Amino acid sequence: MFYRPGDGHGLPHNPFSAIVTPRPIGWISTRGADGVDNLAPYSFFNAVAYVPPQVMFASTSAKPDRDGTKDSVANIRDTGVFAVNVVEYAAREAMNQTSGAWDKGVDEFDDAGIAKAECETIDCPRVADAPASLECRLTRIIELPGAANIVVFGEVTGVHMRDDCLVDGRFDVTRYTPLARLGYRDYTAVREVFPLVRPDDA
Q1: Which residue of 1, 47, 85, 193 is 20 to 30 Å from 157, comparing CA positions?
Q2: Domain count, the chain
Q3: Which segments constitute the Flavin reductase like domain (predicted)?
Q4: Does 202 fall in a domain?
Q5: Tens digit of each residue's pLDDT, the chain (202 residues)
Q6: 37, 29 in Cβ contact below 8 A?
């Protein structure tokens, strides 16, 4: 099968996000200029550079009370900071609860019963029990073609790692089972890892 996105795929459901999988989930926490905390998951998320460490996430929809975007992007525009929290399988239901298009006055930490902690290098909350959290300062926001397609880039200024995830000096993802997004409403859990040695490292 071949299709041109502009012409439509002719299938019952859009296959695009099912093709680009699995995708890590960035559980983005922010604090609005009004002091209201926000927490929302984004599956268009990834690390993009080592030195300095940098990450990105993309928001692809809007809420009526946020002038063409969502709470996360609006808060970051106002404050210039955000945190990325790693999502473990055990937190799947709480993460899903925070994906709702709640009013901008709703604190998703409270709504979903998630413990929060303060970041060290930025004025922003983080998920207290997350396997890892990355404190980030905004570097740029880019608007992409299409309605409400916005990419946020940030430099990591602080890194939190849960002690039980550190094994022999390495961050061990098998200690917490990362949750990843597939297509449609599907997710997967990472329970198995294996090494491959690059040819120039042999």
Answers
A1: 193
A2: 1
A3: 18-173
A4: no
A5: 999 999 999 999 999 999 999 999 999 999 999 999 999 999 999 999 999 999 999 999 998 888 889 999 999 999 999 999 999 999 999 999 999 999 999 999 999 999 999 999 999 999 999 999 999 999 999 999 999 999 999 999 999 999 999 999 999 999 999 999 999 999 999 999 999 999 988 6
A6: yes
Q: Could you list the residue range(s) of the whole structural domain that residue 126 is in?
A: 25-183
The residue written with tokens 């449609």 in the block is 184
Residue 21, classified by CB atoms within 10 Å of its CB into exposed (0-12), middle (13-18) or buried (19+), is middle
Spatial separation of the C-alpha atoms in residues 79 and 37, rounded to whole Å: 12
The single residue listed with the structure tokens 């019952």 is 12
Tokens for 151? 């990419």
Which amino acid appears at position 52 of this protein?
P
Instruction: Render the chain in DSSP notation, one character per residue.
Output: ----GGG---SSS--HHHHS--EE-EEEEEE-TTS-EEEEEESSEEEEETTTTEEEEEE----GGGTSS-HHHHHHHHHSEEEEEEPBGGGHHHHHHTTS---TT--HHHHHT--EEE-SSSS-EEETT-SEEEEEEEEEEEEPSSTT-EEEEEEEEEEEE-GGGEETTEE-GGGT-BEEE-STT-EEE---------GGG-
Are 143 and 149 in contact, with CB atoms under 8 Å apart? Answer: yes
Cα 175 to chain centroid distance, Å, stands at 20
Distance CA 47, CA 1 (A): 32
Amino acid (1-letter code) at residue 3: Y
